Amino acid sequence: MSDGEAFAPTEVTVVDHHANNQGNEKRREPSLEIPLEREYTNLQDARMAASIPLNRRHTLNLEDYFAGPRDMSKHSKWPLFLQMHGSILPKMIVPLVCMAAWSTIITLLYEKVAHIGVNSILLTVLGFVVSTGLSFRGSTAYERYAEGRRFFASLVTSSQALGRIFWIHAKTLPDVDMRKQMLYKISAMNLVVAYAIALKHSLRFEPYTAYQDIEHLVGHLDTFARSATTTMPLNGGVGKKNFFKSIGDYLGLSFAASNPRKLLKKAEKPTGNLPLELLNHLAVTIDQMIARGQLPVPMQQTTAYNNLAALNDAYTGCLRVLTTPLPIAYGILFQQITWLYVILLPFQMVAVLNWITIPATTVASYIILGLLFIGQEIENPFGHDVNDLPLDSYCEQIALDMDIIASHSCFEPDDFFFSSENVPLYPVSGASADIWLRRSEAKLTEAIRTKPNKIFEWRRWRGEKIEDEESAKSD
After folding, report:
1. Contacts of 102 (CB under 8 A, 6+ apart)
2. Model pTM?
3. Could you tell me which PANTHER family the record lists for this protein (predicted)?
4. Cα 209 from Cα 206, distance rounded (Å)
């Protein structure tokens, strides 16, 4: 499955969950029924469907190789300068071919028609301006890239904290079915995962809920996005790319690029703001836990609300990075002066290099234009380019963290502190905690007090032994 299809909207059906309600009740809008159980015609389709929705599946297709973001779990044994996945070279093929043709024309005119070379002093003057502009372009682009990463790091931290609050700190109510309480906590933790995934889709201008990685998390919630999904075309509003458009997209041609806000413009109903609506659901969840007495400690309540606010801060911060690009005047100017510089290169090199001007201009253009194109690619770190942030991996990590937290049994600390496998004074003593309970308090106090001295003496003895062994080998 290609990267573009990994989270493609699935076919949905519209049903009315309130069809059996009493006749005097107001009929609600149709809601989205997620087809979680599907029939498969072959074993391969079933295996693909059984895989984790958040995992990116890579194939040998051209689209997977030149599309992204890059899977950080993959390891390549190729030397870095020979790797193509993640390189800017595919998007530079057309510009480099144009520059090679241009330098060939200038060289032919110089050799066959007239000497049209200019003084190389222009290289020095323009070179300083171009280098300064490219340095500014690259630094501002990477600053946005790093800032986006920081916001998602804070999102992970806040998600882990909320997960612990929901599962560990929230007290169990004696008069409520334990199964109901466990499902309540798990559903609250799923809202945290759904928020991270919804933020990812929002930053990529994907407004619906019928995506493979989020449909099972928010399909039961009453949101604007779910309502808009019921009117969504089966292909998600995105038609299949033709051959020329696909090739142009790989090569980075601007006229082949699609409008990233296409789905928002084609929506037939208000798509709302799914991350914000999920924050509302989380806020109501925390309020109800406090009202029920499940979070009796004020510090726990404060921590819950602070981390909820931190989720909102991460969202607004990512929106700031997304919607505040480099001013267009700077972008146009950098493009113009960079292209002007490489276009003038053959005129300044042909008198000295003659026919070598052609490969020299091509190599110089690769270096200069490469810096420009890299800045353009990482300016928006939330997209589908190879060098963009791996948001799928971050969301997968949050989902895994929630599962790990939920797998923890909320037993008493005495159960693991006084276990026969706990060795509290290692390496001074190999005795377990239950053995120390059978010894005197004075002996335990003496072992704790003398532990630093014994470790220091042991390390010094080990260092002297290593020095003696090295001296014996040298002799």
Report:
1. 343, 346, 361
2. 0.79
3. UPF0187 PROTEIN YNEE, VOLTAGE-DEPENDENT ANION CHANNEL-FORMING PROTEIN YNEE
4. 9
